[in-house]
Amino acid sequence: MMLRRNLLYTAMTRARRFCCIVADPWALKTAVETRGGDRRWARLGERLARRPQGDA
After folding, report:
1. How far apart are CA 1 and CA 26, in angstroms?
2. d(CA 31, CA 3)
3. How far apart are CA 1 and CA 46, in angstroms?
4. Most buried one in 3, 29, 52, 56, CB count within 10 A?
5. Rg, Å, the chain Cα set
6. Are residues 49 and 25 in contact, defined by beta-carbon separation less than 8 angstroms?
């Protein structure tokens, strides 16, 4: 489900000058109350651990 707080936050903070949210009140309330995206699947820590120490 795409009604998650982190997606709403990202949309709002990427707006340069103006952000207009057109939404059903239930959908907006659900998005604000639903945590999501806390877990990342990038495996960045694993990639950095495998990187040779001499690389910048």
Report:
1. 14
2. 4
3. 28
4. 3
5. 17
6. no
